[in-house]
Amino acid sequence: MADLSQIVKAYDVRGVVPDQWDEPLAEIFGAAFATVTDATAIVVGHDMRPSSPGLSRAFGRGAASRGADVTEIGLCSTDELYFASGRLSLPGAMFTASHNPARYNGIKMCRSGAAPIGRDTGLAQIRALAEKWSRTGVPASAAAPGAITARDVLGDYAQFLRSLVDLAAIRPLKVVVDAGNGMGGHTVPTVLAGLPVDLVPMYFELDGTFPNHEANPLDPKNLVDLQAKVLETGADLGLAFDGDADRCFAVDERGEPVSPSAVTALVAARELAANPGGVIIHNLITSRSVPEVVAEHGGIAVRTRVGHSFIKQEMAAAGAVFGGEHSAHYYFRDFWNADTGMLAALHLLAALGGQDGRLSALVAEYDRYAASGEINSTVADQEGRTAAVLAAYTGRDGVCFDHLDGLTVSAADWWFNLRASNTEPLLRLNVEARDAATVAAVRDEVLAIVRG
Known about the structure:
Layout: E1 13-16, H1 23-36, E2 41-46, H2 52-65, E3 69-75, H3 78-88, E4 92-95, E5 104-111, E6 115-116, H4 119-136, E7 148-150, H5 154-164, E8 173-178, H6 184-192, E9 197-202, H7 224-233, E10 237-241, E11 248-251, E12 257-258, H8 260-274, E13 279-283, H9 289-296, E14 300-304, H10 308-318, E15 322-324, E16 330-332, H11 341-353, H12 359-364, E17 370-371, E18 375-378, H13 382-393, E19 400-402, E20 407-410, E21 414-420, E22 426-433, H14 436-451
Parallel strand pairs: 2-3, 2-4, 3-7, 8-9, 8-10, 13-14, 13-15
Antiparallel strand pairs: 1-5, 4-5, 5-6, 10-11, 11-12, 15-16, 17-22, 18-22, 19-20, 20-21, 21-22
């Protein structure tokens, strides 16, 4: 029986192709997915990686063998797959490894209406069936095989997004977009078509070998080309998408990165203007500016653990209108509580184009603190080092603690969070303070304990 523990993660399937998984195993996953979700029909899409079309088709064959009709939407972004799942009311599977290197691939799965599937919501059962059937073979189904049909939803996806944000009256904007040879090169031209946007495309050629740079804008080195192009062209802003285009990062007219927390606060203010008194979700790594802005605009801020499954669960439970994470994942009630960087980008364009100022001035209102960014330390004894940090700060005046997700230590003018990675021997540190000097002091003190 196959051991799938190395590729079935907390929220998805991800591993090296064909070393860790291949098309025959993808077919088994498809059969298991249809069985666990009890689906009579599903929707399947894939990114531009060389292995994605074959894996996607194999998954569809497996689902069809269990009696499920399969709608193949072909090349798409992850949020386009979520759109299809929501609009068609079907469970869905997206073949992508997001920002991982070319030899990786994976599956992001959801139930009907883009409801997430993770370890505790079906993925463990899918893994168990796939492991069993990889040894015994997929049993014959009593149902007749399902039909497999193709459908293009890109135009509907673009039209739906534009229906949620009014861009008709914005001033003309010059926008540089770095797609990183990922799926943004497929979706951006259609979404922005007909809008008052002078689009300067970068790396729109779909290429799953990522010849220009990694499609991971969270790493500053992958923003360098975008920053230079914004300055070269005198653009109003720049946007960068990751490989499957579900995350979106921004740089201002000076080429300076815009904090995802500032984007979260800006979009929250816009959503609260349309939904007075609404609930906004944010994870505990986002800036303190987020709950401050939410309160100032009459909303209710709810703080959660890091990770899309927690955000989506809380979105549904609280009836939230919007949610944001420090990693540039943005979630919308009007998008089935799913994350879509493209919709956040449209909000940013609408906010900038609806006034005459520059982006740097616009986001300054929402970017109130200095931050360290996420700092990783390789640590064998994660629990022991975290306990040592807790002990070092225990008893200090004005300091408080919580353990919602790792260890968060807070004072009047600063806070930090220390979390263990779920998959690697790492401790992740985030520090925020009123000024950069305080950030540096707190960062250095914590790292001395963690790495000591």
